[in-house]
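Hey team,

Filing this mostly as a record. A colleague (T.K.) asked me to run one chain through the structure pipeline before their review meeting, and I want the input and output archived in the tracker in case anyone asks later how it was produced. No errors, nothing strange. Just documentation.

Input sequence:
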Amino acid sequence: MNKLGMLTIALAFGINGCASMHQSQRTEETAMIQPKEVIKEVFVAFFEDYDEAEMRRLLVEDYIQHNPHVPDGLEPVIGLLPLLEEAEFSYELHRIIQDGPLVLTHATYSNAQVFGAETVVALDIWRVEEGKVTEHWDVITPLVTDTASGRSQTGGATEVVDLDKTQENKRLVEAFVTEVLIGEDFSRMDKYIRNGRYAQHNPLVEDGPEALQRVIAEAGLKNYKIHRVIGEGNFVLTQCEGEWNGKPMAICDLFRVEDGFIVEHWDVIQEIPEEMAHDNGMF
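Output structure:
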């Protein structure tokens, strides 16, 4: 082989080798990004820039979907981008918490007819592995402006604090849901809620534990069970299912804990449809 041929091969190897090295470095750097930061990038790419290339970078091809109306895989998500852009879809991210590979987002979506209403409130759970989103759950409900407590569905405290109390707070909230909401042992309410201080953001329920007790008794909550407990510091979410007024529901409750007591609550409740776009269920 002449010198020109050898030089061409050497240059090609060098260029390809550098490209491969840079790609490997980028993959490693992406994998090192905290899951919470990955989801922030997803929000910008999906709901703000409608960026297909970024979505392909941030989600795996065999993305597992639990939204009942969207099929499995990356391509159905990519297929939503033109609809979101045409509608001028937008979002406001209120809270984001991370628990291991799971990230919870609490957001308001506007121009959101693709999700069932002009404006909706959603609690989404995202699984992030090696810098990419691999799985997604959500519950969505239309925004209500006239609420029983006068509080909005998304207002209230947002700052994540008390990181050293995460596990303690998760145990507290799980015990509250198990004993009071599922077991309907309202005599134990004072163990979890101090001096009636309970700021309520469910649009149909007034502030305080008494209103919560009344609504649970009237709704006839049945077959209630916890699927996941996700927490970071003072915020803890329980992902549950149950029958509410005789209908099967997916229920996500977000609690804020302060000094060992539950002081604030948000939720999103969505009816579970009989037919879904996949076989994964909502949990």
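Quick notes for T.K.: Residues 31 and 161 are 26 Å apart (CA to CA). The radius of gyration is 22 Å.
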